Amino acid sequence: MPLCFYNSLSRKKEIFKPIQNDKVGLYTCGPTVYDEAHIGNFRTFIFEDLLKRYLLFRGYNVFHVMNITDVDDKTINRSREEHKPLNVITKKYSDQFFKDLAWLKIIPANVYPRATEHIPGMIQMISQLLDKGYAYKNDDGSVYFNIGCDPDYGRLVRIKLSEQRVTERMDNDEYEKDEPQDFVLWKSKKKDDGDVYWDSPWGPGRPGWHIECSAMSIQYLGEHFDLHCGGVDNKFPHHENEIAQSLYLRGKPFVNFWLHSEYLLVEGRKMSKSMGNYYRITDLRDMGFSAENIRYQLLSGHYRTKIIFSSAKKYQADKVLHRLSDFKERVTQNELISNDALIFPNEFHQFCSALNDDLDTPRAFAVYFDWMKKVNKKMDRSEESPELLLETKNFIDAFENIFGLLPQMEIIPPEIISLAKLRKEARGKGDWAIADGLRNEIEKHGFVVEDTIKGYKIKKV
Ligand code: AMP
Ligand code: ZN
Fold first, then answer.
1. For residues 356 and 15, what is the distance between their CA atoms, to the nearest angstrom?
2. What pLDDT score does 169 carry?
3. Which ligand is nearest the CA of 211, by number?
């Protein structure tokens, strides 16, 4: 099966083909740094990490941009509530965000543009929209996008303007889809904004949230790029408005694929900061969750289905993760033929087909776990041929590159693996003195061999 993604714009699975050979431009909406990100946000960021890891695994050269929303209604409110300058608040939470990303083994983006450092590009885009007549200026110096200019407005969430009561203009960054309104591109300075404002041809003020992402994505990825992602709540109004803003590009395509991950629920409800029913990554660490446990829980459901994160699932997830690492350990304790041939078992192709099918992780996991059981049985019967070991190692490495579910393991040097193998042979022949000598030799290098019913296990002392 060719690589396909479900495009929220066409509501169909479409074959993915980058605009430029093997280069992929990926834009993912980043965090609003007014508080610590929660596990719901990380469901989306881990889905995006999976998407990127799979594209990298398939040999694409991915250029990934994730913005940091460091000026919007929420960040300004938090700065006012805490009586601290905006940049103090946003630095504190963006620093924490980067720590969380690293701990969760999320591959860093190539760039993390901050909205406050890209105001000139936003002003330029707003000017173009005004020049073309898609936007208008209000008496107070605010600028709005006129959604009436866009006959297809509502294409992502299937609303028809002609059937809606299009109300007044909207100054807020977020609102519901049954209230489509002219949205703000530039907000004139208000008393509550304090010293958070920039000069513009329309007077002092600040950009609206939607123009931030349009300007930064275009600056780093060009006017036409491959993939734009976020959580489902980003579809409206955020991404709908981003598409409308790109009208100034009329006649040119903008983004080829829009991908959205579903909500993470807690007790059946969307987890969100405003509802207060959320876990931060620091909370989960304190509760004893490992990064792999969180990754597994978030990746074992398909990204387009709602999933419930729960501490009750922790034990079950840990059991699965132990099975995965025991399996890797069992395989890598064998001497592998020194051959880099990329041979894979047949199940690997079913595994890739599942991921090619819009990143069907539950199906890919099922294929992998069934295959793992089969290989374990073969190893129980000592049927591990050099080819079986090599294809098994290759599949394990591929699985790990794509999902990042194994904790960092100790690397056992090849000479220790050879000594352990010689010791096994000596024991098999009843040469106990030789076997003991080899054990001592292994211990001199700081390792021990333990004999188990499934064979020997090498560990660092
Ligand atoms: P924010 O910091 O609110 O701008 O959100 C950052 C990202 O997290 C966006 O892509 C949101 O769509 C996503 N997000 C927020 N809440 C949830 C949730 N409960 N489940 C999944 N994704 C979410
Ligand atoms: Zn965005």
1. 9
2. 74
3. 2
Q: Are 236 and 177 in contact (CB under 8 A)?
A: yes
Asked if pLDDT for residue 162 goes beyond 70, the answer is no
Distance of CA 118 from the midpoint of ligand 2 (Å): 14
Contact 85, 70 (CB under 8 A): no
What does the pLDDT average to over 16-23? Answer: 97
**Whether pLDDT at 59 is above 80:** yes
Please report the pLDDT score of residue 53 as a whole number. Answer: 98
Q: Is the CB of 5 under 6 A from ligand 1?
A: no
Q: Which CATH superfamily is domain 4-261 in?
A: HUPs (3.40.50.620)
CA 297/CA 287 separation, integer angstroms: 15
| Cβ–ligand 1 contact at 31 (below 6 Å) | yes
- Starting from the CA of residue 229, give the closest ligand: 1
Entry pTM? 0.91
Q: Is the CB of 237 under 6 A from ligand 1?
A: no
pLDDT of residue 328: 94
Q: Ligand 1 within 6 A of 298 CB?
A: no
Residue 43 CB–ligand 1 contact under 6 Å: yes
Q: Could you read off the pLDDT of 192-203 as tens digits, one per residue?
A: 888 999 999 999
The residue whose CA has the least distance to atom 12 of ligand 1 is 231
**Nearest protein CA to atom 11 of ligand 1, as residue:** 231
- Residue-level pLDDT at 164: 62
State in Å: Cα 30 to ligand 2 middle. Answer: 7
What pLDDT score was predicted for residue 14?
98
d(C-alpha 201, C-alpha 122), whole Å: 12
Which residue, 26, 39, 58, 54, is CA-closest to 103?
39
Q: Map residue 30 onto helix, strand or coil.
A: coil
Q: Is the pLDDT of residue 160 over 80?
A: no
Spatial separation of the C-alpha atoms in residues 403 and 47, rounded to whole Å: 10
So what's the pLDDT on residue 409?
72
What per-residue confidence (pLDDT) applies to 266? Answer: 80
Contact in structure between 13 and 4 (CB atoms under 8 Å): yes
Whether the pLDDT of residue 101 is over 80: the answer is yes
- 205 pocket-lining for ligand 1 (C-beta < 6 Å): no
Indicate which atom in ligand 1 lies nearest the CA of residue 41.
8
Ligand 1 centre to CA of 239 (Å) is 13
